[in-house]
């Protein structure tokens, strides 16, 4: 190969001026750099996608609103927009799914955007996801109807606002890791998710790990890492 081709392969990042795109992240961490859309312009997001697309066949953009997504899809029509998750990514039907599955549960309909962020993130990473929505503790029988299916998964992600009790309940019913995600959904004393966060951190059920407020992406990513470890054994 030429010297320029060798340099391109050895380059650790792509310099765009406003961003340095990490080209080796997939080699270090198993998945390419993920674009956080919030705070970036639509033009910046599009340029980053172009850079990443030259090296990777999977793209994931989180926290992107409809107006930015519309522009990005005009520039990159090979991608899809999942509005409820606020995600632009490689079409999910083009990604091979894992043999093992995870469960994504949310307490109420208001938590759906965070739950979908978690679910779609895992699916982009090739993980099979089962969804159980509106199964909060105020109607606990709704959860029990699905508990055998939830137990058959290898990881559960539990999304809840208010007092966040659902995570502790699920943690006491399954024999696999639980990722709890507090949301900013709730009345005044919820303090934009602080109350939920503290409640989940103090959960008495072992095996429960707590993510940051509204961080569905982090939960989906962590769950995917566990499944990939299982399937690479």
From TrEMBL:
Domain PurE: 100-232
Gene3D superfamilies for this protein: 3.40.50.1970
Recorded superkingdom: Bacteria
InterPro entries: P2CMN_synthase_LarB, PurE_dom
One Pfam family recorded for the sequence: AIRC
PANTHER family named in the record: PHOSPHORIBOSYLAMINOIMIDAZOLE CARBOXYLASE-RELATED (PTHR43064), SLL1489 PROTEIN (PTHR43064:SF1)
NCBIfam families on file: LarB
Name the record gives this protein: Nickel pincer cofactor biosynthesis protein LarB
Native source organism of the sequence: Staphylococcus borealis
Chain's gene name: larB
């Amino acid at each position: 190969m030429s010297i320029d081709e060798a340099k391109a392969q050895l380059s650790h990042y792509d310099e765009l001026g406003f961003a340095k795109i990490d080209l080796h992240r997939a080699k270090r961490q198993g998945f390419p750099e993920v674009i956080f859309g919030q705070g970036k312009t639509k033009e910046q997001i599009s340029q980053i996608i172009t850079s990443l697309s030259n090296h990777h066949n999977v793209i994931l953009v989180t926290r992107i609103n409809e107006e930015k997504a519309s522009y990005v899809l005009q520039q990159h029509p090979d991608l899809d927009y999942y509005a409820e998750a606020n995600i632009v990514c490689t079409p999910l039907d083009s990604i091979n799914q894992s043999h093992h599955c995870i469960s994504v549960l949310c307490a109420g309909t208001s938590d759906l955007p965070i739950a979908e962020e978690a679910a779609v993130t895992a699916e982009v990473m090739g993980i099979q996801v089962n969804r159980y929505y509106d199964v909060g503790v105020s109607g606990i029988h709704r959860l029990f109807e699905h508990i055998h299916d939830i137990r058959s998964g290898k990881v559960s992600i539990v999304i809840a606002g208010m007092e966040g009790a659902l995570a502790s309940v699920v943690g006491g019913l399954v024999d696999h890791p639980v990722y709890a995600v507090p949301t900013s959904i709730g009345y005044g004393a919820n303090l934009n998710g602080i109350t939920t966060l503290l409640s989940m951190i103090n959960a008495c059920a072992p095996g429960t790990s707590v993510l940051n407020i509204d961080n569905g992406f982090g939960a989906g990513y962590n769950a995917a890492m566990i499944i990939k470890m299982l399937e690479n054994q």
